[in-house]
Design a protein that fits this description.
- By secondary structure, the protein is mainly α.
- Among the domains are: 79 residues, EF-hand (Recoverin, domain 1, Orthogonal Bundle); 80 residues, Recoverin, domain 1.
- 49% of the residues lie in helices and 4% in strands.
- The chain has ten helices and four strands.
- It holds the Pfam family EF-hand_7.
- This is EFCB6 protein.
- InterPro entries: EF-hand-dom_pair, EF_hand_dom, EFCB6.
Amino acid sequence: LTSSAPDVTSSATSTKPIAHAMQSTRLSSQPERPKTSSSLLGQKSIPTSSRPQTTATCSAPVLNCETIENKIRKNIQHSWRGILKVCKEKDVSKLGEIPVSDFLDIAETFHLHLSEGEMNQITAKYDLKKNGRFAYYDFLQSCILLLKTQEGSLLQRVIIQKPPKPLTPGPQTTSFYSTMLRIQPQILHCWRPMKRTFKSYDESRTGLLHTADFRQVLREYNINLTEKDLFNILEYYDNNLSSKISYNDFLRAFVQ
């Protein structure tokens, strides 16, 4: 958002523990995925026992990892705070990444039940810098938030007219992730009645709500957004500055 975005003051900063935990991790909002070109051949890599090294295995796991992540998603959603805490303790440099060996220990501690092959694929996918380190922040947000439409989503059972103009999402910033993760437990608890309330405000059945109505619905379910929280959400869901939010897209991020 530009100058038309809500004014964010220091007093509006969330004091929730997860916001502090996430905001202390300084990462690029859209990290570059591992490349498979020949230009990577000269870079430093870790032993083959820790991570697949061939071009085929670097490119193939992307689709397979979705299946693996779906398998462990429910477990991650219940234990992500504990996983994050341990990862941050290991991440002494505050870079949002830890050695692959440390993540293997964490996965065993939290009973993710991944085979050796599945673990190799996960660690290859989230070795974003090809340096033998695991980007735990990206891994957790990918398992907790669903920021792309998938077939079979629970919300696709609801027939709602699509917006006249396609909405282009904004940047996935660290602050946006922090806000979404902080309210995730409350959303999961009440998303069904919240969806019905959103629809009751949406008299024209466009699937869109004005910002004020969107915020009011959240308040009805005891989710009180600070100005900074609202700014972070609008920055992603109202990238075209329409002052409207697709509430289905918003809920879909939490309902896997």
